[in-house]
Amino acid sequence: MASITPAILEKSFSEIKNKLTFLREQTKTVHIDFCDGIFTPSQTWPFTTGGFEDMDFEKIMNEEEGMPFWEEFDFEFDLMVANAVENFDLYIKLGPKRIIFHLGALGHSLTGEAQKNIEEFEHFLEGLDMYMRDSVEIGLAFKPSDDLSVVSKLSHKVDFLHCMGSDNIGHQGEVFSDKALENIKFLKKNLPGVVISVDIGINLENASAILDAGADRLTVGSSLWKSPDPIETLEAFQNLV
């Protein structure tokens, strides 16, 4: 059965907490975007407030506190950042149930340095211990313009694919690309059993078509938070699945 995941893209820890407070008892899984201003032009917490030296981030690293309402939510972290693999252990300390790596941050060509980056990512995945693989799902995100042959090659190494609805990532409110819809159909046809989540540009007008194309999870951000009644809108999305 398909599911709806609310997305939070915020510059401050306090605003993340505010939105999580709003979502309590409304959903189990919440998607949180991390943008470092390097892989994406935009920045979110903690990169807007000192990066890994941010006070709230350090408190979690030192196990003085956890993510807000960590007992109530399963967190999905979207790492739109450079050096995501190198800093994997830091993000894990925040307590996610799912972590998403971006193909574009690894290199999406099969030649030269990009191929080396892909191979290093494969080695990283193979080197994760069994406990980690059992407790945290790993996703691979790709943009409409990314090479689907590389996505297909890596699909068997990860737990799910995360289809971005636009090449302009790190922002909410983008228009969903027709190419993204075709990518979902192609991957569902050619990779039996693959789990696909979809992110960016999803609204109540196009959600059914995206689900019909084969999406298993819809990640909803601006359509939710820019609506007059986010809870009513979330329920409307949930009624579609």
TrEMBL record:
Give the molecular function GO annotations: metal ion binding; racemase and epimerase activity, acting on carbohydrates and derivatives
Q: Which UniProt keywords apply?
A: Isomerase, Metal-binding
User: Which parts pass through the membrane?
Assistant: none
Q: Does the keyword DNA-binding apply?
A: no
- List GO BP terms, alphabetically: carbohydrate metabolic process
* InterPro entries to which the protein is assigned, alphabetical: Aldolase_TIM, Ribul_P_3_epim-like, RibuloseP-bd_barrel
Q: Tell me the PANTHER family matching this sequence.
A: RIBULOSE-5-PHOSPHATE-3-EPIMERASE (PTHR11749)
What is the name attached to this protein's record? Answer: Ribulose-phosphate 3-epimerase
Organism encoding this protein: Candidatus Nomurabacteria bacterium RIFCSPLOWO2_01_FULL_41_12
